[in-house]
């Protein structure tokens, strides 16, 4: 699946959409009153019809769409979050959260009441630049996630759209945005992959990661980030593969192929390019001041490369591209999503909004925002701040004519086609989680990323080592200490050669003047002010990155990485290629 060009995918979905439009006139009665919602605490839902014939995904989607009511169609374009780490049993606090969000108690109730097409699993960590729209967390460990996703699919299987499996997504980017961290193989960041510069390593690592997501029941990953890091954006930062659009494009293609080979949909984000603004869309509406041609050549190559690698989805960003549709966030821009993304770039897959609970999307009420987003060209509405209002708004707009039936049918056909495509790949087994081969793939990518920006290329650190760090990184110090010890380097609490770690959010005040080696575990810009004779970058604080760093410090691995962003006063590497 992952190695197939996106062009046949574009064509088949177009045919499916046309077929669905021809038969959609008998799908529902627009004057029929909405059914009475299931009482809170239950998971009752309409009985599912017999599955369409076992043909290609696009044909199955078109056939299924023709059977769906208005209510079913509207539900299939919604992908909210929910409170609770179980589908059917939640705490009082989680029930209260779900009541405020959707008027139900549990995630299963939410799926049943609103005939949902998908659900996103959410969470956050200390260094997470996206934590502003993560209202809760419902991921803890693989076993819990697997039980949760199994319960969610059981609820969705009772729906009229049940033959098409529920979309369950999460933001497993690796690096600072990683939802599931315990008991799984954690890859280094995208920027680390950009530094390694080997798309084969990237593809192998992402295929391993995709298998583990599949095993846990997750079939959509909101990754890879296709944004080019054209600015010092702290919200994108190490989530990007770098500042060179061509080099980033190669890496994005590798990530897409790996992820989708494992049966997990890749999502290119954030179109038309969040890295071209330093502002944060979790707080306000970033403005892209570049010309249309500058965006085409400088921002879009990773998106087109991802599409050509077969990416099933693109996420629209809350970004104001002044040269194309000034004043309108791309999420709500017909010019950007329909004329440019679909028309000029030829993408016919699923377009998903960025979180609709973010400030740029909340300028409109949930119902109106959902209608505007769908009319602009989105197919899935992600993380609405009120599920009931979004659902009711879409249904009223459909029956009132402000949401054309053809647009809704087209969106649902795309969503169902993606579901049936994903169902063609059997889910991996839980036994694959954190498998040795997966860890080896992550280690190979992380080790290849280690970069020397000052100092001798590949020289082992002298004498016993003392590992220090900026505040709050005790866990990373412990991991590096263990990795150094395993590599044969003596580590002692004090008095040794100082190896100092800095990471996400750190600045000049977090550096140590007496450090012999300073290591940047996020974007490497902070190294421009470091005085250490040896400067290294791992771009990530993952276990794999610390293992790779230890191998370099022990003189057992050559630091072959090149910084994928320019650091003032420093070369991309001191190692000759």
Automatic annotation (TrEMBL):
The broad enzyme category this protein falls into is hydrolase
Tell me its family. Belongs to the glycosyl hydrolase 3 family.
Supply the EC number(s): 3.2.1.52
- What's its catalytic activity? Hydrolysis of terminal non-reducing N-acetyl-D-hexosamine residues in N-acetyl-beta-D-hexosaminides
At the highest ranks, the source species' classification is: Bacteria, Bacillati, Actinomycetota, Actinomycetes, Micromonosporales
Pfam families in alphabetical order: Glyco_hydro_3
Which keywords does this Swiss-Prot/TrEMBL entry list? Answer: Glycosidase, Hydrolase
From the UniProt entry, list the residue stretches annotated as the region Disordered. 27-56
Q: Which organism is it from?
A: Micromonospora zamorensis
Q: Which residues form the Glycoside hydrolase family 3 N-terminal domain?
A: 106-417
Molecular function as annotated in GO: hydrolase activity
Q: Where is the composition biased (Low complexity)?
A: 39-48
* Protein name listed in UniProt: beta-N-acetylhexosaminidase
Membrane-spanning ranges: none
Q: Which InterPro entries match?
A: GH, Glyco_hydro_3_AS, Glyco_hydro_3_C_sf, Glyco_hydro_3_N, Glyco_hydro_3_N_sf, NagZ_Beta-hexosaminidase
